[in-house]
Design goal:
- 2 copies of one chain form a homodimer.
- The first copy, chain A, is an alpha/beta fold and 273 residues long.
- Chain A has 2 domains: 99 residues, Rossmann fold; 147 residues, Rossmann fold (3-Layer(aba) Sandwich), CATH 3.40.50.
- Chain A is 46% helix and 15% strand.
- In chain A, the strands form 2 sheets. A 4-stranded parallel β-sheet of chain A has the order 2-1-3-4, with helices on both faces.
- In chain A, helix 5 runs antiparallel to helix 6 and helix 9 crosses helix 10.
- Chain A is elongated, with a radius of gyration of 24 Å.
- The two termini of chain A are 44 Å apart.
- The interface between A and B is large, with 79 and 79 residues.
Chain lengths: 273, 273
Amino acid sequence: MTERPVFIVSDRSGLTAETISHTLLSQFPGIQFSQVAMPFVDTKEKVSEAVDQINDQAQRSGQRPLVFTTFVDENFTESLATADAEVFDLFEPFISRIELALGQQSSHQPGQSHGIANLVQYSQRINAVNYAMHCDDGLHPRDYAKANLILLGASRSGKTPTCLYLALQFGFYTANYPLTEEDFARDELPSSILDHRDKVFGLTIDPARLHQIRSERRPDSKYASLKQCRLDVNAARQMYQRYRIPHCDSTNYSVEELGSTIKHQMGLQSALY
Amino acid sequence: MTERPVFIVSDRSGLTAETISHTLLSQFPGIQFSQVAMPFVDTKEKVSEAVDQINDQAQRSGQRPLVFTTFVDENFTESLATADAEVFDLFEPFISRIELALGQQSSHQPGQSHGIANLVQYSQRINAVNYAMHCDDGLHPRDYAKANLILLGASRSGKTPTCLYLALQFGFYTANYPLTEEDFARDELPSSILDHRDKVFGLTIDPARLHQIRSERRPDSKYASLKQCRLDVNAARQMYQRYRIPHCDSTNYSVEELGSTIKHQMGLQSALY
């Protein structure tokens, strides 16, 4: 199948444009796209080069490319629009309406969407990431007093990446504690957790999925067996119910969606802006 | 100063809508916004509740709120538009043009922008995150063969969060190695690095900024002194020049921008889609 060429052209990192275009194109599941990111196109010359590359591709593939852009400089957008392509300016339809609503001209400065570099925010993120690593996998429970959030779950239920995501995306101090057979045998949460019960959130997962994930790590082990996975997942669920710990199922969520769900359910506000 | 109320309403996590609206509003630096995220608004009842909450806020603040939404269900969008607010449907201006360009109707299914849950991608991310933690701060150099990328830099120049971001966002196996006085004294990179020179990328940072960051951690130490920071940063730069290691300055970049810059300069393609 021929792939429809897609270009994402931006004067900065292009992450916003990439996210939007990916979401838009996911609405057309029958079509294959070949996506080229062109970040840091920030001079007239680079815009010309981008136009050449797009036209080249249009000719080679015999298909009119889709181009998504978020240029702040209108001259760049106009140059780009000369390409033999369907060009989508992702901000233009909104900026003038917002100007009208706010009664103010937009600054036409490159976006600061990713929160550059004020030292307080930078430190918050870095410290949150360091905290997440310091308190990964049950380490250093004495430092739970500093946590915004403590994730519980059976081994491989998705705790670590979710913690790191929450630290990077929102600046939350997030610890995680793996529920093990020891906890299940005692049928009790350790006091380090119970002392901070209002910060605790549990992850569950489909046992069959957990079996797949664990099998990648230790194939054919008892640890990875479907039976053990079922036991662990059920025991974790019972623990959440018993202690009324809010929880959700990570099986069909991406790390981002899981992070947003937890933030929302725990009523946390981003520490970053 | 009164803050202009902003609502971000979504049937899923709302991350895309949050990113877009944040970028759009950053074009109006003179205005203070108070932003409320309303994720997982996925029933008629929840939409009504959202409308009530928005109207409430409009009345209380005496200011017409801005509302950003990415509903897939057009009925939800229509209900939301009845609110006493300026409602921006972030996808609508593009979807019909894309339908036309592609000659196909959009699926009107909730976006899969954050790449839910196919096992291969999930594993790639998780494994990349685990790798980044395993090879953080110079640990396990024997496993550099598996790396997609090895970041170098003086202590606290931003390596760890950048590695974790690259792992989460793009699924890259990213190690990091701190350049220390030992390396500078030998005036040579260790063989573990030289064996993988094509994967190496260096971070530099403004010495004054590094001084601030290190002072947070160990105030008034030799380590944090401006003099030591200058020495370390200069020695690292010389190392990069000598070995022709591509590098960039992390001072004015967010973690996201740094990640995109490195990906771009190293010619890496995301492992995730």
